[in-house]
Specification:
alpha+beta, Jelly Rolls, about 525 residues, globular, 3 domains, seven-stranded mixed barrel
Length: about 525
Amino acid sequence: MLNVMTTTRPNKMRTLCAATATAFLLSTFAAGAIGIAKPDESDIFFAARHVPKIVIEITGKDLNDLRANNRAYVRCTVREDDKRVYDFVGVHLKGAAGSFRGLDDRPALSLNFDKFRKNQVFHGMDKIHLNNSVQDGTYLNEAICRSIFNDAGIAAGRGSHAIVILNGRNLGLYTLTEGFDHTFVKRHYKNPDGILYDGGFCQDLDGQKKVISNTPHLGQPELKALWQAAHEPDVKKRFEKISTLVDIDHFLKFIALELMTAHWDGYCQNRNNYRIYTDTVAKKTYLMPSGMDQMFGDPNFNLFGGVGGTVANQLLNTPEGKTRYRQVVGSLYTNVFRPEILGERIDEMAEKLAPHGDFRGHAAGLKQRITARANVIANQLGVPPPAALKFDNNQARVSNGWEPKIVSGTATHAKRSIEGRGVLYVRVEGEANVSWRKNVLLAPGNYFFEGRVRTANVKGTDDLSTAAGLRISGQKRALKIDGSKDWQPFRYEISVGGMQEVSLVCELISSTGEAWFDLESLKLIRR
């Protein structure tokens, strides 16, 4: 027998999808400018595979007041999945020129759970936003981009989804995001007593800012000092002055990720959709992204040219700033902006949303745009782009590089040898969704993913995507192998529209049983 590797998912993580769980752990424990937070109820909420139903009721005077002033908080009652009831919740309409919709349409909403009832929280959060996603038909941009920033240690809040019912009207699927408020600051920053600002609509750092949390100093002197530092004519002194007022590595990462994700409506290009936190103890100012619903639209988005946000532009126009920025982009490209990991997260979101629509096409399109963007960044950095999988006589074996994964439940994974052949083995006890996975880069075209599968005591259901089989992440199987079967051939069709990183999956979804996947038989055939 070969070396055996056994993995058991910790109880606390059993309800979390693996890529999302990885994302929340990365974001939760990111250090540097952001404080180190412990996992809490909100982590579990954002990592769960369930899409909650949020029922909002606004009545009487509150409804009339909201019609009269849709930006002012009024009281409402919120019911979550017909289980939890929150009363005296503050609600108002939100959105800017492109996303705002009226109360009788499909409005975006802000919910403040402790606005009128002290200490009331929603899964550990005081405030959440329900975005109508009218500018993002994929419903995926906010959540994936927030995870990218959080992975890098930039406090971007987190994103998920909900079904929204407002006064009896089913408004359908919404994007649910974490609100910016004092609870958010306490979670993400070591010193929670600084000042949190809204950046304003298409407004640079010299504009008068709306205060979100805590009492500002008269005249916003911290922002005024940063603005003055950015206009220092001596480029060496300019870099030094800006560096004393911001965490320079944090600020450069913020700039880099806005441009790497093609965030055209963010601070760096449009001076829009950003928040500011000023740590009044450390005397440092931090920028955070917001409004990431229109992302990755242009693979050739400007990465090393001029930007619109004045402080960012003035920093990048210093020799030291330019050098440090290029180093930061390279580090983020290597360690954070990884299409294979992002693609897996996107697939899991699409699977989570499957009961509410077919998001597989949206997921595939977004993954292709991210891969295209990564290739452009690699070219601008002088890094050779990854090569697509090579085929010999239209066949490519994929017997190496498989990694275990547990979506839910508990399982034992092992690499073994049976009859002199290497196999991927997995066993489940209790309801579980587990697999072995391998990422490959495929050129556009049509393929078969083939291999031999053996099962013992596997329980399937009427759903063909249960039991054992082969597929790619983000797609469902139309065949299954259950019960106790000797080696069976399995074939899965793949269609790739553009150069795309796909995750091959050898999976077992069952309440009991074992499955073996013959490594030597696993291959891709180009049609």
